[in-house]
Design a protein that fits this description.
20 strands, Nucleotidyltransferase, domain 5, GIY-YIG endonuclease, 5 domains, seven-stranded mixed beta sheet, 20 helices
């Protein structure tokens, strides 16, 4: 959309709050935004372009038209904007950046006598999930605490009331080493087991006081019933739990249930840190990475992150602590911008975490620009060793395979960025060559490969490796000349005996250090081509081995023929076998066809001899 087109359109835009959508010529939504005043907000996109970011200019240039929806309040605009972004995921709206570290959840399985375990997958089967947790070692500490405090089953048995009453199960080793109370044989009731599950949920929610009270009550009850060993065991568990609670980050006992958010950003990304505080302790922390697609302000980014994080962690805290005022979709949530006190200290802790991630990202970027990756170093060394004009990001290697001239095949393996690209591997049945002729086979396969690439317009590799000496290399060059590709790719041959590298029309091998990484990459490609070709060749030989006189019988396939040959050992023994014996192997119908075939063949031989 141009400035002139917008000027004609602008008078029709209301000054009320609402949302607006940029759409392309095909009606696809490019961007969704909200505004207190729609006309003023949209006009800002078409002002002095000298002060606009490049991404904003690209959005405006790609937009074909603008649509808007009026709402009653700015709060309603926020709700509608959030809903449309989730539904359409426009390309120019802020995006979540996937974390490299896999996330971990604690699952309480929906079943009788629920299991509690760590998982990376969330299955919507009614089970309860806590998390996600980014630091696996922290969640493993919690899982270990739960295991020590409560005896839970780990088996996958179907513990229905009917199965337990019928005594289908026996106590396992976990019961005997006191890790499980054996609900499978009725030694623990479902009511008692579920009380433990409730306390586990309290731990995971941060309700430590409820867990302590539960353990104290159980200890008191055991003591009153003169179960002193049980009381001592519960006392040890209480001490273990208090030790765990003591290692948690205690903020203030006066802060009960709050979510804390802070943001740090640069030109391309933003990092929003989240602290979950329950009963005065930080029970969870997470930093979300956002990728900017336009000139989003901090308020927009923070609101987007708060909604995402509270939804992801299923948080319903009534209070949110933030560094500056924001408007949230949830009207009943109190937004606090602290100036002093414990809440201010909490916010400062969150800000430190966000700044840490920002500094780490800048440090990684600076380190990355100052060094080459392992693959880049190898490829640049290979480029220098072979005197190439381009870095060989795309390498192809050819190899022939045959056994005494039978089933000649060839293979082509592809390496991209110094790593095998197996989806691009190709194998070839040699069509125009009879007998063991490696030169002619190489000529045919190289011609077929690059004729196909040219026809499909797929581009060409920077480096082609021919497994073999000067003869195979000359044969490959013959095909490349026929296709007009000579000089458009670097082509080398690798001789097996001395691992020498040859260039076309050069009788002297290239001088490459035998220990260099570039030679090792060439050898890796050659070995991979050989392995791939041998595998394909074996498969072809196996197929041809099954092609016997038996497969020429109408109704007898390769599998039936293979069964007969495996049982009898040879075609002659199949011919001489009794029909009843053949029936045992392949059935009456197939046995009848085999018997009829050999009977007719015997009659024809007899008539022929007469």
């Amino acid at each position: 959309m141009t400035n002139e087109q917008f000027k004609e359109f602008a008078p029709s835009i209301p000054t009320a709050p609402g949302i607006y959508k940029y759409l392309d010529a095909e009606g696809i939504i490019l961007y969704v935004g909200k505004a207190k005043n729609l006309r003023n907000r949209l006009s800002s996109y078409f002002g002095d372009k000298k002060y606009q970011l490049a991404k904003t200019k690209v959005l405006v240039r790609h937009a074909h038209h603008i649509e808007f929806t009026i709402v009653e309040t700015e709060h309603d605009a926020l709700l509608l904007e959030n809903s449309l972004i989730k539904k359409h995921q426009p390309r120019y709206n802020v995006m979540l950046k996937d974390e490299k570290s896999p996330l971990v959840y604690i699952c309480i399985k929906r079943e009788r006598f629920p299991r509690v375990f760590l998982t990376r997958k969330v299955i919507k089967d009614g089970s309860t999930y806590f998390g996600p947790y980014l630091q696996k070692f922290r969640v493993e500490q919690v899982a270990e605490l739960i295991r020590k405090l409560f005896q839970l089953r780990t088996c996958t048995l179907h513990l229905s009331q009917e199965n337990i009453e019928k005594q289908k199960f026996k106590p396992c080793l976990e019961y005997h080493i006191k890790n499980c109370a054996a609900p499978c044989v009725g030694l623990e009731t479902e009511e008692d087991y579920n009380r433990k599950i409730e306390q586990i949920k309290n731990i995971l929610k941060g309700n430590f006081a409820a867990v302590k009270n539960h353990l104290k009550e159980e200890m008191q009850r055991a003591a009153e019933n003169l179960q002193f060993e049980q009381a001592q065991l519960l006392k040890e568990k209480l001490s273990l739990f208090e030790d765990y609670q003591g290692r948690s980050t205690v903020v203030s006992p006066n802060i009960h249930d709050v979510d804390v958010f802070a943001i740090a950003d640069d030109e391309k990304e933003a990092f929003v840190n989240f602290l979950k505080v329950v009963n005065g302790a930080v029970i969870h922390t997470y930093t979300l990475t956002l990728t900017k697609n336009l000139d989003e302000d901090k308020e927009t980014l923070l609101v987007f992150a708060i909604q995402n994080l509270r939804e992801r962690f299923q948080s319903h805290s009534p209070e949110v602590i933030v560094p500056f005022p924001v408007v949230l979709p949830e009207k009943d949530v109190v937004v606090t911008v602290p100036k002093i006190g414990d809440k201010k200290k909490l916010l400062e802790l969150s800000e430190k975490n966000g700044q840490y991630h920002l500094l780490q990202k800048k440090k990684q970027a600076a380190t990355a620009t100052g060094r080459q990756t392992h693959a880049e170093r190898i490829l640049r060394t290979l480029q220098a060793d072979l005197h190439m004009e381009e870095v060989p990001l795309w390498i192809e290697c050819f190899d022939n395979s045959n056994l005494q001239g039978t089933n000649p095949v060839s293979s082509c393996v592809v390496f991209k960025n110094a790593k095998p690209s197996k989806r691009d591997y190709r194998h070839y049945n040699v069509k125009s060559v009879e007998g063991p002729n490696d030169f002619a086979s190489m000529e045919e396969v190289v011609y077929r490969r690059y004729k196909r690439l040219l026809a499909e317009g797929q581009g060409l590799p920077q480096l082609v490796i021919i497994d073999g000496g000067k003869g195979q290399l000359s044969a490959a060059m013959k095909s490349l000349r026929a296709l007009g590709l000579e000089g458009k790719m670097t082509v080398v041959g690798i001789a097996k005996r001395l691992e020498e590298i040859f260039f076309p029309d050069d009788p002297v091998p290239a001088l490459i250090n035998k220990k260099s990484e570039s030679l090792k990459l060439i050898q890796q490609a050659r070995n991979e081509a050989h392995r791939f070709g041998i595998t394909f060749h074996r498969n072809q030989r196996s197929k041809n081995f099954i092609k016997t006189e038996l497969t020429e019988i109408a109704g007898i396939g390769a599998k039936t023929a293979e069964k007969l040959l495996q049982h009898f050992g040879s075609l002659a023994r199949v011919r001489a076998a009794e029909r009843a014996e053949v029936e045992k192997i392949v059935g009456k119908v197939a046995a009848g066809k085999v018997a009829s075939y050999f009977s007719e063949a015997a009659e024809n031989e007899e008539h022929g001899s007469n």
